[in-house]
Amino acid sequence: MTPTLNKPDFAPILVERIKFPYEYDASRQILRLDAEHLPSLFPVLKGDERLAFDYLRGLTGKEQPEGVYHVVYMLASISLRHDLLVVAKAPESMQVPSATPYWASADWLERETYDMFGIVFTGHPDLRRIYMEETVSFFPLRKSFKVLQVVNLYDLGGAERDFAKPKKETPKPAVSAKDAEKL
Amino acid sequence: MNPLYGQPDLMEKRQDDLHTQELTLNVGPQHPSTHGVLRLVIVSDGEIIKSVEPHLGFLHRGMEKNSESREYRMLVPLWDRADYLSAMHMDYMVSSAAEALMEIEVPRRAEYIRVIMLELQRIASHLFWFASIALDSGATTPMFYAFREREKVIDLLELVSGARLLYNYIRPGGLRNDIDARFIENTSKFLKTFPAYLDECEQIYSGNAIFINRARKVGVLTKEAAIAYAASGPVLRGSGVPWDLRKDEPYSVYPEFSFDIPIGENGDVLDRYQVRFYEMRMSAEIVRQALEGLPEGGHTAKLPSVIKPKAGEVYVRQEASRGELGCYLVSEGGSKPWRFHVRPPSFVNLAALNKMARGHLFADLIMIFASLDVVLGDVDK
After folding, report:
1. Which residue of A has its CA nearest to B327?
2. Which residues of chain B does A100 touch, with a Cβ-Cβ cutoff of 8 Å?
3. How high is the pLDDT of residue A183?
4. Between residues B102 and B35, which one has the greater pLDDT?
């Protein structure tokens, strides 16, 4: 029978190898840091033989209530059977170094995160939107994008306005005020 | 930029120098063998593929955004629609994410019934895949055999949930309703006939020389490349990596059952095919064990009518039919999720298609794509 997932404490390895500020929660296996330090973190995570994170199973973003964006890396090691969640705080410029030189799966996952949040991954070989058209002017998973405000394409502004029908004087709302309250 | 991870580049290995003019060919989005609305832009040299670039998003419904304006119980029927061929796994994903954040204990009987449903769903999904890969390779007959048997599984799932495709059965805290004696009787009857049926399929299709010639050494994904591309499920195991979340990161009551994890050797279409076939046998075995050891008890935990998990973040994952189905849930308190991210297995597996198809004939691309078992509702979310 194969061994189940290990829960080792990475703190001694991180203290030895990492020289920038970070927060590590050993009970939940979460590592928090600023995104500018990622270029020096990736080689440690992938290269250190005690960590050996060879499997980037997921990558996504999230917006905090105070308007700060985070990039979340879900890492696992198939050879050593442990996992780690890395949460990196994106700077205001929204430029985050790409993980594609280390994990090939980051290619599409970073494109998806760029598509949804507008986080730019510097060094990505082919950073284009993956689900939506290149001409779309908004990033849907940002909290500033409100689904219920969009009554027709005209409200989106930008390129979408060119495709929209001329706006009527009193547009009929897609969702009534009563339903909007419920949602 | 990315190294090839030991992946053989058949385009470089070609013996002849008879290159022709590059041809750009568009496949889809409306094409019978793309299993949905997928558009592929293929650059080919004669009939040999140089690169395949999938263009996604024709089925993008913004489900992650919609999840942020819905209560947790409303998410179950919404995410049913993502991977419509294995909706039970989607139900379980939403439920287990909410449960992990709330730290509630689900009754053991409910967990056992969940495992039965998840494994029956895996059989139904793999049978559908068997029908479609046979159809893509030009054989029409296996489809009728596969659908005959899939119909029996769907009938079982309909018996408990009332729906044939989108079940909304597994819910936060437990299940919609308990199973009855009729379900247990019908399932036991199905399990008796099912292994013999799989033998029949092996006879008519798996041993077919035409199929084996089209599948062996086609679409090879090496072990290293499969890990680098974060492939999961039968694609990863077909490449020879023994990684199954039911064993390696156990969830629910899977540690209580004994079953084998099949792995391939070469990582070609034939290996992925055989891994899925063996998985169906193992799923039937798990259902049999679960029915035998079904404990007594309630079918759901007592929860308030509006679920409000405390603030926090959690990443839950499970072995769905197509691979690792992960869910990253962030809550800021309140009755709706703050962020609901889903890691769809089809999406991540599809990213390796270009590496697998390069250097093969165009006709092989259809087989390689079918062997990935991609559902476009799952890719596009």
Report:
1. A58
2. 1-2
3. 63
4. B102
* Closest chain B C-alpha to A31 CA, distance in angstroms: 13
Q: Sheet of B48-55: strands edge to edge?
A: B22-27, B39-45, B48-55
Estimate the crossing angle of helix B181-201 against helix B108-136, to 10 degrees.
30
pTM of the model: 0.86
Cis peptide before B29 (omega within 30 of 0): yes
Q: Which residues of A touch B1 (CB under 8 A)?
A: 100-101, 125
Chain A residues whose beta carbon lies within 8 Å of the beta carbon of residue B347 = 108, 112
Residue A157 has pLDDT above 80, yes or no: no
Residues of A in contact with B255 (CB under 8 A): 4
Determine the residue of chain B that is closest to A78 in CA distance. B243
pLDDT in tens, A97-134: 999 988 989 999 999 999 999 899 998 988 888 888 77
B253 touches chain A (CB under 8 A): no
Residue B94 banded pLDDT, cuts 50, 70, 90: very high
Question: Is the minimum CB–CB distance between B190 and chain A shorter than 8 Å?
Answer: no
Asked if the C-beta of B39 comes within 8 angstroms of chain A's C-beta atoms, the answer is no
Distance CA B83, CA A108 (A): 19
**For residues A8 and B293, which has the higher predicted lDDT (pLDDT)?**
B293
Q: What is the DSSP letter of A33?
A: E
The string of pLDDT tens digits covering residues B40-59 is 899 988 788 888 999 988 88
Q: List, for residues A161-174, the tens digit of each pLDDT value.
A: 666 666 555 656 66
Q: Token pair for residue A3? A: 């061994």
Query: At which residue do the structure tokens 């050993």 appear?
Result: A26
**Residues from chain B contacting residue A133 (CB–CB below 8 Å):** 57
Residue B66 near chain A (CB below 8 Å): yes
Q: Is B18 on the interface with A (CB under 8 A)?
A: no
pLDDT higher than threshold 70 for residue B348: yes
Residue by residue, DSSP assigns B30-71 as: EEGGGTEE-EEEEEEETTEEEEEEEE--TT---HHHHHTTS-
- Whether B4 shows a pLDDT value over 60: the answer reads no
Backbone phi, then psi, for A70, in 5-degree steps?
-115, 145
Are the C-beta atoms of B134 and B142 separated by less than 8 Å? yes
CB neighbours of B177 closer than 8 A, spacing ≥ 6? B160, B299
Q: Taking residues B261-282, what's their average pLDDT?
A: 90
User: Is B243 an interface residue toward A (CB < 8 Å)?
Assistant: yes
B225–chain A Cβ distance below 8 A for any pair: yes
User: How remote is the C-alpha of B281 from its chain's centroid?
Assistant: 16
